[in-house]
Amino acid sequence: MNRSAFLTAFVFAFLVIALATTNGGLLVLAIPFIIYLMMGLWSLPEKIDLEITRSMDSERVNPNDSVKVVLKIRNRSTEATEVLIEDQVPEGIVLHSGSPRQLMMLTGNSERIVEYEISAPRGTYHFEGVKVKVGDALGLVHHAEVAPVHGQLYVVPNVLRLKRVAIRTRRTRLYAGNIPARVGGSGTEFFGVRNYQPGDSPRAINWRASARHTGMYSNEFQQERVTDVGIVLDARRQSNMFAGDRSILDHSIMAAAALADVFLSQGNRVGMLIQSNTLTWSFPGYGKVQRERIMRTLMGAHLGDDQVPMSLPRLLFGKFPVDSQIVLVSPLITDPLIADDLDVLLHWRARGYQVLAIIPEPVSFELANLPESAEKQLAGRMVHLERRTALNRLLHAGVQTIEWNVQKPFDQAVSPYLSRPLAGHYVGRMP
Amino acid sequence: MTRFAILLAIGIGTATFFFGFASVDYLLPGILILFLGTGWIYAQWLEVEWSSMVGLIGAGCIGGGGILLGAHSAWMLAGVLLSLLAWDLIGFQTRLSFASAVNDAKLLERNHLQRLGVLTAMTITLYLLTAFIRVELGLWWLILLAFVMTLGLIRLLWKLK
Question: Do A50-155 and A228-418 agree at the fold level?
């Protein structure tokens, strides 16, 4: 209840009762209330004249990194004011120390600092403003307004450093990189032998072949170039949510970030497609700018609503060139009654894409959060076998698949498989 | 400090009401008031949110009732004033819980207590003035004054809104 209205009601009640009973003594009781109200109104400042600025340690951090937020409040008037400052912290942010809500006494032309520490899960956070409440000295009435002090905090996913991912695509781009291009030229990997041509380095001459045949022969090496890589991240709720409302998506995002980072650092042209309730598309590009763009895309990735069952995108034309490398990061739904994920992957393969599926292993993820029992073990084994049978379809179609038990760090778990050429098709060790 | 002041204000306020009632031989209501005061202190100890509002309303009713029953207005005014101070200090304590630095809290506390001191002094002064300066007013004067005060209060409320 409004304090001033409460007291005014008191005064009014005393007046009415005094009038009704014609007892002047009752009016005496109204004295302290009237003086109290007058004192409150007297000390009410005319207007708020504050200058507020917000600064942060860093606007771009990793999940759960601590960020120190500093609010500077300057009273530009000469009047002393009691101020309640409340920084409107976006939802999802976790407060570690300090408080974004503080009452303070600001003397004329003085400056005060409010500090607090926060951390946040992955995402973008917009700070809209600071709520300022200036009241009278007795807390009867107050002016409240929101000072527009804008700011943002970007919490980007952790990027694990992978040393190398060896991929081979049928089509490469013109620029030099480290993907064997199946074209003779300068490189490190032996490609073939051809007739000597003037200008060839003497070190390139194949003396053994030249001695056996008439004429001179030179060794030719395979050119190494960059290629197009499309990363498809599956953020559908139906494939990422498991028992106890636990999501495996953050693991997938971490894997996608690490892969995007390594492909870009190898000089490739990388694009990102996120399948959620909508398709989020990051156009292919090179270098650090593209890396930042992809990280921002991943930062905003969220589980798609499962009200409308979504499939993985069947057609990738126009987004990724045919014969390029597609990396799908998904727990994959292998049950054909729920989704046609396997068919989609086979469709991509049939269209000429090189497909690598990184599968954050959902069965062991879900089993880890269920109580121990013999039935659980048995059910787990059955589901493993069922999934293995289903994934064999992919293997036979030439889709390279790597299953990753998310209880192990991604870089340690998949590096042995990724660092050598994915010539054949195989499945990473089942847990 | 504030907490101690709250308990002190409720305690003394209850005692003044008791003396006021006891002085006109209403001992039983006086004892009942002592129990009510103890109840307020206990509720305050338990940090019951609405206790201050109920306490002040109760104090107003007791003060008004005391005057109508013939108790001396000085006792009743003291009781009401101390209850008002207790109510104010409880609200202030809630606001103070948002204060960050100890320096801020102490400064705010000191300023507030000073203002309450001024309030008490002004109330006593005005009460003494009413005790010494007495003007006989007829019924129509009383109605006119009540009308003017009501208008003033309505304007005040309007401004506060």
Answer: no
Do A118 and A151 contact (CB within 8 A), yes or no?
Answer: no
Q: Distance from B7 to chain A by nearest Cα, in Å? A: 19
pTM of the model: 0.70
Per-residue pLDDT band for A427 (boundaries 50, 70, 90) equals very low
Q: What would be the CATH architecture of the domain defined by A50-155?
A: Sandwich (2.60)
**Tens digits of per-residue pLDDT, A11-54?**
888 888 887 887 878 888 888 999 998 888 887 777 778 889 99
Chain A residues whose beta carbon lies within 8 Å of the beta carbon of residue B127: 28, 31
Domain-wise residue ranges, chain A: 3-40, 50-155, 180-221, 228-418
Gap between the Cα atoms of B108 and B100, Å rounded: 11
Can you read off the two tokens belonging to residue A53?
Answer: 């600025």
- Name the DSSP class of A277: S
Q: Which of A8, A11, A22 is nearest to B143 (CA)?
A: A22
Query: Chain centroid to CA A74: how far?
Result: 36
Domain ranges of chain B: 2-160
Instruction: Specify the fold of A228-418.
Output: Rossmann fold (3.40.50)
The arithmetic mean of pLDDT across residues A258-270, rounded, is 90
B 49-108 residues with CB below 8 A of A? 53, 56, 60, 63-64, 67-68, 73, 76-77, 80-81, 84, 88, 91-92, 95-96, 98-101, 104, 107-108
This complex has an ipTM of 0.87
Burial degree of A336 (CB within 10 A; 0-12, 13-18, 19+): exposed
H or E element at residue B32? helix B27-45
Model confidence pLDDT, tens digit, residues B6-54: 888 999 999 999 999 988 888 888 898 999 999 988 988 888 888 888 9
Task: Name which of A84, A140, A48, A133 is nearest B115 in CA terms.
Answer: A140
Token pair in block for residue A207: 């003396």
In terms of C-beta distances under 8 Å and separation of at least 24 residues, what long-range contacts does A416-421 make, across chains too?
A418/A162, A418/A164, A418/A165, A418/A166, A419/A163, A419/A164, A419/A165, A419/A166, A420/A166, A421/A166, A421/A167, A421/A168
